[in-house]
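Write out the 3D structure for:
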Amino acid sequence: MSTHRANALALFLTAALVPAAAAQTVAITGGTVIDGTGAAPIEDGVVVFADGRITAAGPAASTPVPGGATTIDAGGKYVIPGLMDGNLHLFLNLDLETLILHEHRLHEIVLEAAQITLKTGQTTVFDTWGPRAALAKARDMINAGEAPGSRMYIAGNIIGFSGPLGPDFRESHAPYVSQAFVKRINEAWEENTGRELLWMTPDSVADVIRNYTTLGMDFLKYGGSGHVDMNLISFSERVQRVIAEEGHRAGMTVQTHTTSVESFDMAIEAGVDIITHCGISGPEIPIPAESIEKMVDRGIACSVLPITQRRMDALEAHNPSGTLTPYMKIGAINRANMIKAGAKLLMSTDAGIENPVLRAESPTLASDTIDPRVKLGEGHFNALVALEELGMEPMEVLKSTTSNVASAYRLDEEIGTLQPGRWADIVILDANPLESAHNYREIHMVIKEGVKVDLDALPVAPIISSMKVAR
């Protein structure tokens, strides 16, 4: 880390992460508390926390403020749980320039991303594909109080997929660098869980996954269908079931990448906990009602990638031949049907840090800038509006980015609601999110583990998001 970045981080830690700040008792008073459980909002509510955990929450008339507590006046404001993204990528900058320049500093870019998400109200995020070692280093630094950032849970590789310079992503870039570099980069992601697994027997795959679960990830994700060839099934149902069993044996949740009707149904039969971007089923055919009902009946959560109507219109106007344009049209039908069926939906974006230089040079700039989905710090706000546009009830929109995510990842005793015992992860808004999903942008204050976040200081030492476009 450069001296400038080290000094910037030290100053931030001194100012914003002083341990004593979390130790005192704090009460948020006067605001409307929407606790994320689905219960009715509490006007003139109180939330009390100490040592980073919520100790009480409820109406002011029945929730006394402890003597000596520091108070935060939330009069006229709205107090909600910290937001979450159920599927994003804290390192998604796969261009050769970034990989070459920052090969040994990937964790610093991960920290930048985690600070962008925290700045925009996301106190917890779930990284579903990335370089495990770099992600784990950043995660552990944040957990130890050595750096600010959203709480991170990580999967490492998507099991069965190649690394960034392999056939599932940007293999066409590989000839322009040494094969030694290609090997190092791909191995940083794959860690023996790449495409070679597609040839293996269920028993052999089980052995690989059993070893893989010891490396320090928090959950597993595998490719049920292809990333480039989205119409192809990656693993047989037998192998998918083995991956799910090994993940569960290790105490982890298991999710799968699906992009077709049949891969969606196979994931349900394999026994996964979460189906990632489950609204994607190809360019023509919506997911059958019976498959959606089966997912709901079995309690499987669905991580969706909603886009606003403005974005859909922009794609059709400016990028009609884009690969994902027809997928998103069918996806909107699937998401609406899932909402009607009562599916547990998780707000997700697939987002990463936007590189301003590459964005300015993008051939699809006209559509890229309209309610972007994959711009970290922006995509989640647009996704919540998109869910509202699809007819999701306002309280369910809130749950999609709070308690639904927590329960799907089996973390609902720790995060996701403003209930006693949970981490004091709190967002205070200046406007009512139940009146309009646009109001999630109206952030007044973010509190993580009982500590007020210095939003103006984030990201501390940006590498990607601060790049300047030549004029």
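Residues 10-22 have pLDDT under 50 and may be disordered.
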